[in-house]
Amino acid sequence: MKKVFLGLLAAALVFSACSKKEEAKPVMDAKFAHAEIKLSTMQCKSCAKNITAAASSVAGVKEVKVDVKAKVAHVSFDDSAVQLAAIEKAISLAGYDANETKKDPTAYNDLDDCCKLPQDSNM
Ligand SMILES: [Cu+2]
Predict the structure, then answer these.
(1) How far apart are the CA of 123 and the centre of ligand 1, in A?
(2) Structure pTM?
(3) Distance 33 CA to ligand 1 centre (A)
(4) Distance, CA 9 to ligand 1 centroid (Å)?
(5) Cα–Cα distance between 118 and 84 in angstroms, integer?
(6) What does pLDDT average to over the chain?
(7) Residue 13 lies in a domain
């Protein structure tokens, strides 16, 4: 009987401790939209730099983070100022596929060999 009582007491203490915990505050900035852009043709860190520069140059884009391994760009942007399609376009004009937007062929030709697809590279 005593054990049951202690068990209940312990449970009550745990419960009260939990209920006092502060709720985690959301860290996302509500003002900005977030999107992932697939970069299926990117090859290396140099590509990441080119893509970051291209996407960052679009007005309304707040932050660009390119994940080289995953071949994805994480973009934060003000969606009242710019559409995702405009960001994709800027990346395509730098010579890379961005989601379904195909790379600009001229820009792609001007890329360093290391940034081209393995079948187009002369290295
Ligand atoms: Cu590259």
Answers:
(1) 13
(2) 0.75
(3) 27
(4) 62
(5) 28
(6) 87
(7) no
